[in-house]
Amino acid sequence: MDLRNTWDKWPDANGRFGEFGGRYVAETLMPLILDLEKEYRAAKLDPAFKAQIDDMWAHYVGRPSPLYFAERLTEHFGGAKIYFKRDELNHTGAHKINNCLGQVLLAMRMGKTRIIAETGAGQHGVATATICARFGLKCVVFMGETDVERQKPNVFRMRLLGAEIVPVSSGTGTLKDAMNEALRDWVTNVDDTFYCIGTAAGPHPYPEMVRDFQSIIGIEARQQILEREGRLPDAVMACIGGGSNAIGLFHPFIDDEGVRLIGVEAAGHGIETGEHAAALNGGKPGILHGNRTYLLQTDDGQIVDAHSISAGLDYPGIGPEHAFLRDTGRAEYLSCTDDEALAAFQLCTQLEGIIPALEPAHAIARLGDVLDTMDKDGLLIMNLCGRGDKDVFSVAKALGFEI
Amino acid sequence: MPTSRITARFDKVKAEKRAALVAYLMAGDPDLEASFASMQALRDNGADIIEIGAPFTDPMADGPSIQRAGLRALANHTKLIDVIGLVARFRETDQDTPVILMGYANPVHSLGYASFAEAAHAAGIDGTILVDLPPEEDAELRAEYARHDLSVIRLATPTTHEARMAKVADGASGFVYFVAVNGVTGAGSADPESIAGNVEMVRRVSGLPVCVGFGVKNGAQAAEMAKIADGVVVGSAFVEHAQSAHESGDYSKAPRGMGALAGELSAAIAAVVKA
Fold first, then answer.
1. How many CB pairs under 8 A join A and B?
2. Would you say residue B275 lies in a domain?
3. Domain span at residue B81?
């Protein structure tokens, strides 16, 4: 299949990216997601909606985020030039707010007054709570009780912002269970509630909508590298949990044949141990949370808990467009263990004076391998999608420090 | 002919001028042996149709009772093939009571739609309700079901407006399961009067019997629902007997408790004479 000039047709009218995606939801939610799709189509064409987002991006979020030449890391590896797209400098410290802003403004257009969200690391929850505070909307965040425990600073932030936190103990008390509980809330409160999904997954139109809102990352990066270097990069790279920051970076480059798209999944203790979060490298296609995609599952189709040191990557699925990008061969997907991510976290901090979140530390950890496959005069852009303030406690613990 | 087993049962119930009792239990909760005894007890005490739950790790449409039932079944390593085997065993001595498998799409998808349809038919399963497989996504499954005369039983809800109902009815067979409340299983109960119009619309558009469930726990509620519905579905209240069997360690409590509840519900439903 010739992917160039054809990508715009995905997702198709049924919300599918090839054989992935779709709308696998209970009947109670079907009329709601069909309505959401219609409202999103209308908003997308409305210049006033776009102007409202652009204004907030410029003056509230702080966009465009810089494209930074990571000189000392480049020297360290001695290969192609490494650029960081600095989405960790956004208000609230990660790329998540790009999407929350778009979804909450859409919710307001639709007359919804109550926003619900799931969160793992807490970044999406904080971003959602922030936008809800800004617009005076009620915000309820579902969070696995395991994550409530390991992400205390973000839990407190969300409470300060006025959000109600619902610790989820059902199932195994992690991100996937938080998502189940958010879906249960949504089927119960269909009239006033908007579900703000944090990653490029879920039933159609969420994967498309989240991708579109996050594509500002790649749109800016493409323009910035053309200004800085006068040409496109040879590779763009990002970490992947559900895959929203990666699809946001990748999508504007999909038609640029010469640009490699490289995602890095969380291998946890190692894919061979079974304790990981690498759905593409260690899962198989299945149906969960509204979409057909790669999932960590048993031979009997039961979902297996993911494991990663990074709560933001700790999810047993992956956005359906990544599943499609992988199967078509357009993107490459690598993986990185907890230990490798911890080492990369320290390396970046020491050489660049930037404390990255553990999530992008997974991508940093694979830089050396990727640069080995590139020419020395090559260009690579990596999305530094979040800052590491939230992770200092868990990193200290992993390194054996008490703080 | 499995589909005609469902049709035959509704014909019988209609001839008796009453609504049907549809009883749900989770396979493998507290264990498969107790589930087998419970299916017989339900049948012997007036359940007209049995819905057998297949456990799933992520039951996003279920409330706490059925979530816990699923976790207990999974802790017992209950697999989809075990659920199919349970129905096959029930069929050895019962050729008439329709059995519907209820669960989520992924275990069926994992087994493969063709393999599942073949095995389900061979075991004597009459149809399925897969909660997260709406009409938009079940064409592939329906093609396999058509080869084995299995029913696709669809869900309709208070959010299903009349225009959408045409889509829901297209390809549906057996009966339509009307979910009385927006919410999860075992949650608050609906006022039958407030949904009577919806049920009538679903019956008219689909041309199928309509069974109403969610939130029905006792005879009085079942009788009220029987006035507007062709069948009354009860789930969480049965499952709670499996929970107490599990907690007490006396697994015979499951068939005893479920049988007694089925007796109460079927008597209450039968007391409502239908035209």
1. 118
2. no
3. 2-270
Asked whether residue A15 falls in the same domain as residue A133, the answer is yes
Q: What is the distance between the alpha carbons of residues A330 and B51, in angstroms, rounded to a whole number?
A: 45
* Mean confidence (pLDDT) of chain B: 96
Chain mean pLDDT for chain A? 95
Q: What is the CATH number of the domain that holds A110?
A: 3.40.50.1100
Domain that holds residue A135: 7-57+96-210
Which pLDDT belongs to residue A93? 96
CA distances from A15 to A20, A22, A308, B6, B131 (A): 9, 5, 30, 34, 19
Q: How confident is the model at residue A7 (pLDDT cuts 50, 70, 90)?
A: confident
Residue B2, pLDDT score: 45
Question: ipTM of this model?
Answer: 0.96
Cα–Cα distance, A391 to A313 (Å, whole number)? 13
3-state secondary structure chain A: CCCCCCHHHCCCCCCEECCEEEEECCHHHHHHHHHHHHHHHHHHCCHHHHHHHHHHHHHHHCCCCCEEECHHHHHHHCCCEEEEECHHHCCCCECHHHHHHHHHHHHHHCCCCEEEEEECCCHHHHHHHHHHHHHCCEEEEEEEHHHHHHCHHHHHHHHHCCCEEEEECCCCCCHHHHHHHHHHHHHHCCCCEEECCCCCCCCCCHHHHHHHHHCHHHHHHHHHHHHHHCCCCCEEEEEECCCHHHHHHHHHHCCCCCCEEEEEEEEECCHHHCCCCCHHHHCEEEEECEEEEEECECCCCCECCCCCCCHHHCCCCCCHHHHHHHHCCCEEEEEEEHHHHHHHHHHHHHHHCCCECHHHHHHHHCHHHHHHCCCCCCEEEEECCEEHHHHHHHHHHHHCCCC
pLDDT, average across residues B171-200 = 91
State the total domains in chain A. 2
Instruction: Give the mean model confidence (pLDDT) for residues B262-270.
Output: 98
Counting the structural domains of chain B, the total is 1
**Nearest CA to CA, how far is B191 from chain A (Å)?**
16
Q: Is A372 found in the same domain as A349?
A: yes
Catalytically annotated residue among B29, B31, B51, B230: B51
Region A266-283: mean pLDDT is 97
Mean pLDDT of A362-377: 98
Is residue A192 located within the same domain as residue A181? yes
Cβ-based contacts of B106 with chain A (< 8 Å): 286-288, 295, 297, 301-303
As a whole number, mean pLDDT of residues A10-30 equals 96
Single out the residue in A165, A190, A210 at which a domain terminates. Answer: A210
Cβ contact A171–B71 (<8 Å): yes
Q: What's the pLDDT score for residue A6? A: 65
- Does residue A57 register a pLDDT over 90? yes
Give the per-residue pLDDT at A4: 45
Find the CATH number of the domain harbouring B228.
Answer: 3.20.20.70
State pLDDT tens for residues B207-236. Answer: 999 999 988 999 999 999 999 999 999 999
A272 at B interface, C-beta within 8 A: no
Clarify whether residues A67 and A31 are in a common domain: no
Are B154 and A177 an interchain contact pair (Cβ–Cβ within 8 Å)?
no
